[in-house]
Backbone:
């Protein structure tokens, strides 16, 4: 039996606890949280976050709170003042005039006028900027070094019911993901995605473990190998001709035909199945599931992930529509994972399966023994992710391109002239022409930038340990969200961001072109991890854009009076920024047969 602690040991323990508390409090005071909206008691910022266009809210917060003064400032004390000034307005009223009074005799007339007149007349932030540390007074120079500077912050902090989150609003802020991926690459478990919609175990949502590494190897073998990518080109070229033939026949159905084009490519790559008719049942099912998923909102900002008890909310209660949508998506996505998997498995057993991502997995895994339920669930999940991830986002970019061409016919004509000069009118553009069509490449980049297809990225991450960023304290377990929409419209990087202007990329040197390429934000992922399907998606989008420019013309629809209808540049809320259905239409520019 142990001896009871002595009074001296108890005293030492109390002192140690007190010192630890004091050290922690001093540390929290010396490093503040990033700026952000003021939270409400208990609720935090739950009532201030828009679940529809949250990227707009985050951008507004960046403009409002992104330039701030740290709340803890080492302010010089005025003579006779025994307490430091803690808030900025009080310091401006007391400490600064008192400090200036001690150095006023050594300042010239300009300094005296500034101290008496301009400091009172100008806004607080402008007064900060006018302090010049090179002024002749050493004492004033020391004071200037201690004065708070305008601190530009591209990181905004908010919280919901005690769970903190930071929003990255600039390309520079992605240092946290790219250079500190060791602590910024953890994927928080989403109640909405993992439990209510039952998406696990899918690689984009897995933590970094053995299962994630296994699925990553599967994807890399099919999407990063050059020989494999080259083998997909005949599929892409066949499907683009089918898409063009469909648009020439029914121009008003261009959006669904674009989705069929992207879906046809990914269906054959993932499952070895060729779409034989426009009304293919699986493509319809998959499109419906993806649309419902995006309507359900972004998982990274779902309220149930901040308030887990909401998962038990009855579906009949007012305000529970989000749960009914989640359960509907669960049913649809289970069908998307199960139906093509079983079809491919049966075709493989019958010897009629074509080469595909899934058939390769089934053959390789079967050689090592019988398939376990865990193996089958993993293969169902990763094959469905390959199909869905390569279909909806890519189709959204191409539909956005159509909207941009309807609104900017001069851009369209310039690109068509380039294609006519390089390719001619006897054939369609192909991948060998890509390097010779720089303006088409600029249109592709600008389309990604003009409408960010994934406004807040694929998924959020969380930080595994406390960190400091630009003297801001980021606590452990903070959710990290990348506001790609704001990054693509940052006027410091892209002047006149609201304007669709492919010419902005012409004349850039290689390093600048790479740094400002908006596709990098979408091809990347959490923790600096590059999307393995980025090359395939990029080539499919480019081929669609180039071939549509070569064969089609774009115009505005007309009303009953014959007047043109200008489509609005509005985009649907949700995880993927779909252009809203509008009145843009496509007219024939040239005729390409399917022969």
Residues:
């Amino acid at each position: 039996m142990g001896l009871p602690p002595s009074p001296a040991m108890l005293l030492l323990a109390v002192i140690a606890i007190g010192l630890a508390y004091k050290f922690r409090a001093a540390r929290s005071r010396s490093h503040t949280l990033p700026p952000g909206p003021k939270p409400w008691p208990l609720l935090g910022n739950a009532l201030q976050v828009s679940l529809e266009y949250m990227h707009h809210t985050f951008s507004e917060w960046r403009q409002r709170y992104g330039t701030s003064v740290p709340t803890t400032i080492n302010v010089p004390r005025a003579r006779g003042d025994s307490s430091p000034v803690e808030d900025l307005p009080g310091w401006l009223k007391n400490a600064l005039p008192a400090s200036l009074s001690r150095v006023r005799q050594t300042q010239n007339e300009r300094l005296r006028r500034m101290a008496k007149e301009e400091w009172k007349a100008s806004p607080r932030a402008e007064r900060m900027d006018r302090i010049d540390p090179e002024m002749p007074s050493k004492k004033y120079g020391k004071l200037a070094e201690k004065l708070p500077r305008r601190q530009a912050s591209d990181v905004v902090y908010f919280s919901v019911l005690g769970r903190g989150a930071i929003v990255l609003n600039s390309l520079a802020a992605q240092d946290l993901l790219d250079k500190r991926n060791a602590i910024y690459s953890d994927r928080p478990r989403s109640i909405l995605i993992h439990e209510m919609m039952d998406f696990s175990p899918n690689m984009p949502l897995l933590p970094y473990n053995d299962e994630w590494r296994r699925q990553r190897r599967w994807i890399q073998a099919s999407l990063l190998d050059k020989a494999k990518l080259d083998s997909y080109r005949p599929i892409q070229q066949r499907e683009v001709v089918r898409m063009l033939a469909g648009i020439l026949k029914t121009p008003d159905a261009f959006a669904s035909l674009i989705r069929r084009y992207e879906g046809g490519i990914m269906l054959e790559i993932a499952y070895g199945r060729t779409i034989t008719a426009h009304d293919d049942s699986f493509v319809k099912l998959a499109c419906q599931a993806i649309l419902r998923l995006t309507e359900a909102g972004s998982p990274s900002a779902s309220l149930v992930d901040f308030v887990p008890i909401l998962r038990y909310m009855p579906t009949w209660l007012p305000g529970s529509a989000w749960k009914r949508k989640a359960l509907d998506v669960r049913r649809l996505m289970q069908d998307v994972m199960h139906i093509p998997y079983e079809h491919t498995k049966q075709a493989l057993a019958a010897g009629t399966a074509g080469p595909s991502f899934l058939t390769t997995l089934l053959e390789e895994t079967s050689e090592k023994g019988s398939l376990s339920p865990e193996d089958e669930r993993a293969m169902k999940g990763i094959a469905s992710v390959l199909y869905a991830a390569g279909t909806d986002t890519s189709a959204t970019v191409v539909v956005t391109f159509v909207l941009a061409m309807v609104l900017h016919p001069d851009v369209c004509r310039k690109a068509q002239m380039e294609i006519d000069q390089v390719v001619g009118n006897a054939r369609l553009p192909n991948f060998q022409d890509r390097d010779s069509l720089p303006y088409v490449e600029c249109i592709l980049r600008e389309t990604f930038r003009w409408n960010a297809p994934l406004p807040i990225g694929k998924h959020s991450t969380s930080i595994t340990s406390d960190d400091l960023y630009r003297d801001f304290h980021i606590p452990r377990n903070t959710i990290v969200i990348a506001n790609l929409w704001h990054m693509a419209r940052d006027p410091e990087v892209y002047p006149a961001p609201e304007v669709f202007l492919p010419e902005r990329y012409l004349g850039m040197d290689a390093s600048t072109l790479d740094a400002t390429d908006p596709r990098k934000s979408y091809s990347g992922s959490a923790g600096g991890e590059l999307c393995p399907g980025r090359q395939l998606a990029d080539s499919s989008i480019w081929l669609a854009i180039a071939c549509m420019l070569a064969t089609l013309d774009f115009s505005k629809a007309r009303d009953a009076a014959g007047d043109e209808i200008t489509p609005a540049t509005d985009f649907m809320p949700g995880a993927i920024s779909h252009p809203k259905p509008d009145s843009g239409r496509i007219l024939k520019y040239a005729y390409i047969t399917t022969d």
User: Anything to note?
Assistant: The chain has two domains: 88-152, 160-588. DSSP finds 26 helices and ten strands in the chain. Residues 88-152 form one domain. The chain has a mean pLDDT of 75.
